[in-house]
Amino acid sequence: MDESILDVDQVENLIKFCPTKEEMELLKGYTGDKENLGKCEQLMKVPRVESKLRVFSFKIQFLSQVTEFKKSLKTVNSACEEVRKSVKLKIMKKILFYWVIH
Fold first, then answer.
1. In degrees to the nearest 10, what's the CA dihedral of 57, 60, 64, 67?
2. Which are the contacts of 62, defined by CB distance < 8 A and separation ≥ 6?
3. pTM score
């Protein structure tokens, strides 16, 4: 599946409309002209379509979650670096050290 064609919401909507086992059995038993079936019904003949859609949804969400996590991690690293370089923090350390000794 190509994630540039479907987004997470579209995949989730497809999952909602996946046929039940009973509907799949009816579809498998259909002996009429396949052209009379809608595109949705033709797609639903794919084995384990719901499972495949759920995996695809996870894949799409996983990539965006990793991207968001990387952004958050950069923010935390940047904040830590600023704290390490803080002149005011160094002064406070000296003052606290002075108080502890005296």
1. 140
2. none
3. 0.55
28 pLDDT band (50/70/90 cuts)? confident
pLDDT at 1 over 70: no
Q: 80-88 — which CB contacts under 8 Å span 24+ positions?
A: none
Give the three-class secondary structure for 39: helix
- Put residue 48 in one of left, alpha, beta given phi > 0 → left and psi -120 to 50 → alpha: left
* Cβ contact 14:52 at 8 Å: no
CA distance 94 to 78: 24
- CB-based contact 46:52 (threshold 8 Å): yes
Q: How does pLDDT run across 54-98, given as a tens digit for each residue?
A: 999 999 899 889 999 999 999 999 999 999 999 999 999 889 988
pLDDT, residue 17, reads: 81
Half-sphere exposure (CA, 13 Å, Cβ side) for 66? 6
